[in-house]
């Protein structure tokens, strides 16, 4: 999981915004009269390592903020803060920041998962924890066939070489490479199937808008057990609860809001569900960016 961080473009966009509330706190420096406050310095701690010396980090990051302020001022002098491109990017970054702050606020209301919930999550997902495995696979990626019958026909091949020959005969573009697959990131049913797959026997799996054919070359046990497993499961459940709270807020806002689309812009169909089954990328992204309750709990090795 990653903490909130902003690219240089995003930071410049926010820095150039002259009509927004200014950070408060003790003034640490001034650049042509523009104050850099301790609150602005503390905002940089989102990118710092856990347990960092706050005072030392403030001093280390201050020259970077000075440089950023100087570059933003140069952009202002060129009138870049008056362009439509700036206005669009500023609105986008402000919305992302507000959503992240909302996610962090809702995170404070999410209860800590209890022991029973953590144990049930671990028990239901053995290939994420005690039976977790990593696989080196020989993998072919190809576009989704036009028909189900065509896909089933590709599934009859017992080697990747034979499958590659068939794709070549059909003039179907494909790529082939060796990749590492971790069962912890697979759907539980798929993970169970891959774990039992014989070496060299291709297994077809959906991938984005196409499919992959995977033949296992090497299988390695990588169990996550004990307290690391419990901490990880608790953090996963916490983030799901945050996503659920954000999803509820989004649903309430949709019900209250008046939304209209100009001709040709109305979405068709429902968006694909992301992590936690929530049908909103904004919700999933914000939930994932909330700092971990225990900094190392949400990491996998």
TrEMBL record:
Catalytic activity: [protein]-peptidylproline (omega=180) = [protein]-peptidylproline (omega=0)
Enzyme category, top tier: isomerase
Superkingdom of source: Bacteria
Family matches, as Gene3D superfamilies: 1.10.8.1040
Keyword Aminoacyl-tRNA synthetase attributed: no
PANTHER family: PEPTIDYL-PROLYL CIS-TRANS ISOMERASE HP_0175-RELATED, PEPTIDYLPROLYL ISOMERASE
Protein name in UniProt: peptidylprolyl isomerase
Native source species: Sphingomonas sanguinis
